[in-house]
Design a protein that fits this description.
Blueprint: H1 32-44, H2 49-73, H3 86-96, H4 105-116, H5 121-156, H6 165-173
Helix pairs in contact: 3-6, 4-5, 5-6
C-alpha cells in the first residue's frame, strides 16, 4: 500500500570512446617559420649557470662597446650617468670651445726640464720663473672659468641643479684636449648653440 512505484527512466546510451582517435588541441598548428622562431627563442634563454654567465658577459661586452662608441661620438643615450644630459653637454662644449692655459703646461715643463740640464743657472732661473707664471695664469683662468660658467648655466638652465658642475668643468679643463673623454665635439672659438636638448 505504501509502496513506491518505479518510474521508468529512459537513459541515453553513451557513445563509445575511441582511444585511438587523435584528440583536438584547441589551437591551430604553427607554421614551420613560427615553429623555428619559437625554437630559436627557447634556445636563446639560458638554462644553466654557465649559460647565464656567458649571456651576462656578452651583454656587458655589448654595453661597454656602446659606451666606448658614445665616448667618441658624444651620443647621449649610451654615455655614463656622470656625462649624461644637456647641462653636462653644454659644460663640455663650453670648456672645449675656449683656450685654456693648462694646454701650455706640458710643453713648458718639457722646456724647463731641458733647460735645467743645460747647467746655466741664469737660464734655469728664467725657465722656473716662466713655469711659475704659467701656474699662476692657470689658477686665474680656472677662477674665470668658474664664474663665467655659473653665469651661463643660470641664463641657459635656470631650473637645472648646478651641484657638481664646477668640479666637472674644472676636471675637464685640467686635461689636455686630446685626452678628454667624451671627445671634444667643438673647436676652439666655435660659437655654441643657444639651446641644448
Amino acid at each position: 500500500m505504501f509502496r513506491r512505484t518505479k518510474t521508468e527512466t529512459t537513459s541515453v546510451p553513451a557513445e563509445p570512446i575511441d582511444e585511438g582517435a587523435p584528440q583536438k588541441k584547441g589551437r591551430p598548428t604553427p607554421s614551420r617559420k613560427e615553429a623555428e622562431a619559437a625554437a630559436k627563442a627557447r634556445a636563446k634563454v639560458p638554462r644553466t649557470r654557465k649559460e647565464m654567465a656567458a649571456a651576462q658577459k656578452a651583454a656587458r661586452g655589448q654595453s661597454s662597446a656602446q659606451v666606448r662608441q658614445a665616448m667618441r661620438t658624444g651620443d647621449d643615450r649610451f654615455l655614463p650617468p656622470r656625462d649624461k644630459g644637456p647641462v653636462k653637454r653644454f659644460i663640455r662644449d663650453y670648456v672645449d670651445s675656449r683656450f685654456s692655459f693648462i694646454e701650455l703646461l706640458i710643453p713648458l715643463m718639457l722646456v724647463v726640464l731641458i733647460l735645467g740640464w743645460s747647467g746655466n743657472a741664469t737660464v734655469t732661473t728664467y725657465a722656473n720663473l716662466a713655469m711659475l707664471s704659467v701656474l699662476v695664469l692657470i689658477i686665474v683662468d680656472l677662477l674665470r672659468l668658474r664664474f663665467r660658467l655659473k653665469r651661463e648655466l643660470t641664463a641657459r638652465f635656470p631650473e637645472a641643479p648646478t651641484k657638481g658642475t664646477t668640479y666637472y668643468a674644472v676636471a675637464r679643463s685640467m686635461q689636455m684636449r686630446f685626452m678628454r673623454l667624451p671627445k671634444s665635439q667643438v673647436k676652439v672659438g666655435q660659437r655654441l648653440p643657444e639651446r641644448y636638448k
